[in-house]
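Posting this for the archive.
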Amino acid sequence: MRTYDYAPLWRSTIGFDRLFDLLDESQHRTEDNYPPYNIERLGEDRYQISLALAGFAPDEIALTAEQNVLTVEGRKSNKDQRDYLYQGISARPFKRQFSLADYVQVKVASFDNGLLRVELIREIPEAMKPRRIAIGAVASAGQITQKAA
């Protein structure tokens, strides 16, 4: 796999630190494919992550959201020791992390038929949304008067 040097971009950009960190991290990460998951777009600002967690109970799964990272952890409890002749359903502990964009929040999580579904929504604060600025006219004395929009 190729690695890229982002140093030239650091010299000419401001405020993209998080993006470059994500790109750099993705180059060095060894991807574990367990548990399998889907990421869906449900609408313009709505998303859903579905994880296949066969064999896990809801109380054996921990879901944590903090600082633009969603973490899903699972650990089987040892209360049900069985003598398997063949164990094809994996029950190993796992930790899967998803990087979330700014203003993306976890709304609800549900567990049904071995699928953990996590719904996410991007809610941009009113102060961050684009707004129209009225252009005033310059009066003869140098004062700006507002035009009605």
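The CA atoms of residues 70 and 79 lie 28 Å apart. The mean pLDDT is 82.
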